[in-house]
Amino acid sequence: MSQNKRLASGGRIDRKKVINFSFDGKSYKGFEGDTLASALLANGVDIIARSFKYSRPRGITGHGSEEPNGVIQLGTGASTIPNVRATQQELYAGLVANPVAGWPSVNFDLMATLGKAGAMMPPGFYYKTFMYPQKLWMTYEHFIRKAAGLGKAPTAPDPDTYDKINHHCDVMIVGAGPAGLSAALAAAKTGARVIIADEQNEMGGSLLSTTQTIDGAPASQWLQDTIETLEDYSNVIVLPRSTVMGYYDHNFLVVIERRTDHLGEISPRGARQRMHRVRAKQVILAPGAQERPLIFANNDIPGVMLASSISVYLNRYAVAPGNALVVSTANDSGYQAAIDWHKAGRKVIGIADSRAESNGELVEEAKKLGLKIWFSHAVIEAKGSRRVYAATVAPINAEGTQVTGASQNYDCDIIATSGGWSPVVHLSCHTGARPVWNDDIIGFLPGKTVQKQHCVGSLMGQHQLHDTFEQGLATGAQAACEAGFGDGSNSIKVPSVDLVKTGQAQALFLVPHSKSVSRAPKQFVDMQNDVTAAGIELATREGFESIEHVKRYTALGFGTDQGKLGNINGMAVAAQSLNKTIAETGTTIFRPSYTPTTFGAIAGRDTDSLFDPIRYTAMQSWHEANGALFEDVGQWKRPWYFPKPGETMQQTLDRECLATRNSVGILDASTLGKIDIQGKDAREFLNRVYTNAWSKLAVGKCRYGLMLKEDGMIMDDGVTSCIADDHFILTTTTGGAANVLEWLELWHQTEWPELEVYMTSVTDHWSTMTISGPNSRKVLAKVCDDIDLDKDSFKFMDWRSGTVAGVKSRVFRISFTGELSYEINVQANHGLHVWEAIMEAGKEFDITPYGTETMHVLRAEKGFIIVGQDTDGSVTPQDMDMSWCIGKNKEFSFIGKRSFTRPDTSRTDRKQFVGLKPKDANVILPEGAQAVRNPNESIPMTMVGHVTSSYYSAVLGHSFALAVIKDGHNRKGESVYFPLADGRTIEAEITDYVFYDAKGEKQHV
Amino acid sequence: MSNVNVKVRPDTPLAHISFPSAKQGGVTFQERGFYGHLTLRGNSGDAGFVSSVEEILGLSLPVKALSSASNADVSIHWISPNEWLIISAKGDEAELEANLRAKLTGHFSVVDVSGGQTVFELSGDDVITLMKKSCGYDVEAELPVGKTVTTHFAKASVVMNRLDEKCFMLVVRRSFSDYVWRWIEDSSQEFGLVIKL
User: Fold this and answer.
1) Which domains does chain A have, with CATH numbers?
2) Of chain A's two ends, which shows fewer C-beta atoms within 10 Å, N or C?
């Protein structure tokens, strides 16, 4: 029974190329050119899915992105993709597809047997459930997901890659049907940069399945010529298999190109999908129109399809998905399905036309072919469960609101339905334009927009091919002209196409039943979410009158199909129920993405090690070769510590700390921010941005500076050195470098432009290495003989220029460890060389490289703060006991000064910077732990501060911490307690924050 | 001058990379290491400033936004209304800085940033596509030969100049150069990447 629904000839498939695939565990064959949907239909597979709420069998309904039911799980394992529309998935060899819903299988659904989940899920289920009983939500959700199935996300990393590309173009055309293609032809001819994208594998839209002729030849000939012409233009980018998923402000569009989805589950070459980010001067929307189904009882049974889809399956894929057809239509275009069906040699039982008459050409043709037509009738109910076996046809009144006589059942296995054509206004909505109802076309048209946007073709309700060509060409030329190309007139001959005379369509949405809506069998509006006409009526009865509320209450349009088939019908049902017109009820707004977009395409190559820039210093290769572990500081990788084989982290830290305290250690400090400041007003500028005074800092001297925000809170700190009277070099914290430069520029440019000062970042220019410890002078002396290193001529807080390891250097005698220290700065191209030379020179002193962790311990032993660790944007210099760093007599004031007198900053019970010594010398307090004064107080306890830094000190032989404690400066010697989440309570004594070398003698040696 | 006897060995920011050895490809990459880079700040409304710069560089100061001037050895690029980037292929930044400092008067600054940035050159038949994959600037229509823009390349900030129809110069900060290189290596896979040393 292989492909028993395939026609012997015709279609755009290649019968010589047989493709094997499987669905729901069974093997099938299809042809190249098939979609998964057309191949399944060719093989007579009726049931593709089970419905979300009621677990009803569902089959293919449409033929494109609108498909609500034929949604499958593609592939297996790491590359599996949930919720793929079978109608859009091209067949490839070995394709494996499975239903997303239905367990254990779609053909034997346990849920359907045991009782339908839907009974538990009336409209508003989510809201009712969230309200009461809330605690059951997790249980419900688990049950719903497993039972109904929403597709499964892969659990392993995606084996494919995705990437992005940026485009700027003059004219972007969305949709490559007759309107889009003719617009592209006219725009391309002007020389404008044109991009045309279409979601299908083949461009052409309605031309792919039309039986109309163009210029006297089959439409496929014009199509082929046109696409070849466009591809030959160097100024045109043709993007098939590319969905414009979003249209954003300023004519920015996002297009997802599926580059290899048609070749296999995993890309055989390069990126699987590519996101095109298009910035267009002019946009032409030509997405076409979507046929709207009529709503009638049991309209979800497999075998009920869109009329246009039946023509597409017949003409494009050579598949006749049934034998005996009944058509239910409210317009002429429904007749096309019957005519095509008849011409394919299949039986047309009859056409139920809700109108009293029509003088259209298609109607005449159907009559000529002898097809049975029932005017003023409609299919009011489908019979069947796993497949349609009959259609119930009844006479209805002219308004389409009541059944007026006895119904009759006609045996058939397929029902085609056409309620008219809804313009695909989705993209036009993305930029905020609200669609406008139009009674003439019985649909919503794109609303007024502020974008440079044009709309053509059936998006505007234009269904005559000839007029579409004419408008497309004119609009393409016009858009190009508005983008600066051509004179706006079209010089391309409009293809010759016969006009098709059509009769007046009827605005029919919900077909009446002999029973009331609430009593009739289910009349599905949104099949993916199992929203029925009765459900929408219930919602309006419960008081949800705004269409936006109805949508959310019923979940109408919330599926992965965004309600492409159901929304307009839903609005109509709601309007009818509320006794309003559709224009009064309005519509909901569509948002990106037009069809589901995979996260891979959104991420592109910004993943893994390319997710964010990783910044390295010039010495990175040495650090890696010497076993460093790294810490992320901003975007920088900094050595964290350098473990030797077999060492625990604490052992490494102890070794690194003691080596520095007793001999010499070396730190890569290149990541510190460095800002070069030049100009005659540099000193005054520093006076204003730092708390302390800079007027008298002599050339060759360095000074610690503290920077505040306007609120008086510490923002950054660092050492600034005087290079020349009008030239300084300012250092910042690693993480604060960019912010500080922006901050300085902001104040300079907006508040003090009169100060003559220029600032330039030199962070990357200098490699900085700090040698620290009692032997650091001896090490430096071995590689530098042109700086007098004598302690009295090169003092603490001096800097000198000289030559280190043959390289011109600036050497700063500053210390973040409290030891004798030299910070050597060299041009970064020489950083690694100088580092290696120092390591060689330091060998005899067992020079020890250390990372950020040991740096933290050593500075904490000295009570030196780290901005961002010991401060958090809410502490003042006074809180940190740093009043010594505040200039009292500066002429101009400085940023933050005025805030010192705010009541909040001047109160005495603020958290203040102190040291902590745990009573148990081996217990390390967790950083962030909250302090209380009375450990026996009942919860909520009175918290009086918290730990900011905490370590074990090898040189002290005990643990210690830095903290901010309320009124801490007056409470030294008292105990505070730290009740921890694990039940322990740690007692610690408040101490001074300087634990080592309290007099500060060592840095002066 | 120091007497410490060490052989000085400079490294470019990509010294640690083992470059691939393909002979053919749509994109060619070259690191132009050891160029001299100076950031010049000053007032282009000051005729003395303009003429002094021109005299020393032998190039007219580009005062029009996003413009540049160059000769065989030196190029100067407009960065902001009072900022220019001078790049010298000869690596004579110290001499240039000294000459500028000697000649310029009034409010100006000259900063040597040679260690802090490097130059990548990208060329080849597919270079435009690579650029489009890497940055949002309209390199096709808005970046004619000689124009200099400060923009982004992937997630790094770069100064970009078009040297030729199919050749672009990127000035990349040293610490970002490994990232930018890895981005180029990754995104040029589909074209093939040739390294020019």
Assistant:
1) 14-129+144-148 (3.10.20.440), 162-286+424-482 (3.50.50.60), 292-420+506-585 (3.50.50.60), 620-670+765-859 (3.30.1360.120), 673-761 (3.30.70.1400), 909-1005 (2.40.30.110)
2) N
How far apart (Å, rounded) are the C-alpha atoms in residues B42 and B110? 9
B1 pLDDT band, cuts 50/70/90, is very low
Three-state DSSP class for residue B25? coil
pLDDT range class, residue A456, cuts 50, 70, 90 = very high
Q: Which of residues 35-94 of B touch A (CB under 8 A)?
A: 39, 41, 82
ipTM of this model? 0.97
Per-residue model confidence as pLDDT tens digits over A16-70: 999 999 999 999 999 999 999 999 999 999 999 988 788 899 999 999 999 999 9
Q: How wide is the angle at C-alpha A773 spanned by C-alphas A772 and A776, nearest 5°?
A: 70
**Please, which contacts does A409-412 make with residues 24 or more away whose CB atoms are closer than 8 Å?**
A409/A383, A410/A326, A410/A349, A410/A350, A411/A324, A411/A349, A412/A322, A412/A324, A412/A325, A412/A326, A412/A349, A412/A388
Chain A closest-CA separation from residue B125 CA (Å): 14
- Mean pLDDT of the A950-971 span: 97
How many residues belong to chain A? 1005
DSSP state, A941?
P
Decide which of 2.60.120.10, 3.30.70.1520, 3.10.290.10, 3.30.420.10 is the CATH code for B36-114.
3.30.70.1520
- A25 near A10, Cβ under 8 Å? no
Question: Is residue A855 helix, strand or coil?
Answer: helix
C-alpha A366, offset from chain centre: 50
Q: What b/e readout covers A587-612, taking b as 16+ CB neighbours within 10 angstroms?
A: bbebebbbbbbbebbbbbbeeeebee
Q: Report the distance separating Cα A475 and Cα B22, nearest Å.
A: 48
pLDDT value for A110: 54
Cα–Cα nearest to A281, from A169, A430, A428: A169
| Smallest Cα distance from B105 to chain A, Å | 11
pLDDT surpasses 80 at A487: yes
Q: For residue B136, give how far its alpha carbon lies from the nearest alpha carbon of chain A (Å).
A: 6
pLDDT at A257 over 80: yes
Contact yes or no for B6 and A783 at CB 8 A: yes
Q: How far apart are CA B70 and CA B86, in angstroms?
A: 9
pLDDT digits (tens, 9 = 90+) for A189-222: 999 999 999 999 999 999 999 999 999 999 999 9
Q: What is the mean pLDDT of residues A729-753?
A: 96
d(CA A965, CA A944): 6
Cβ-proximal residues to A121 (8 Å cutoff; 6+ apart), any chain: A53, A144
The proportion of chain B whose per-residue pLDDT surpasses 90, expressed as a percent, equals: 95
Architecture of B27-33+116-196 per CATH? 2-Layer Sandwich (3.30)
Mean pLDDT lowest among A1-10, A208-217, B185-194: A1-10
Among B residues 114-153, those touching chain A with beta carbons less than 8 Å apart: 114-117, 129, 132-133, 135-138, 140-142
pLDDT for position A54: 86
B188 has a chain A CB within 8 A of its CB: no
Looking at residue A118, the DSSP 8-state letter turns out to be G
Average pLDDT of chain A, as a whole number: 94
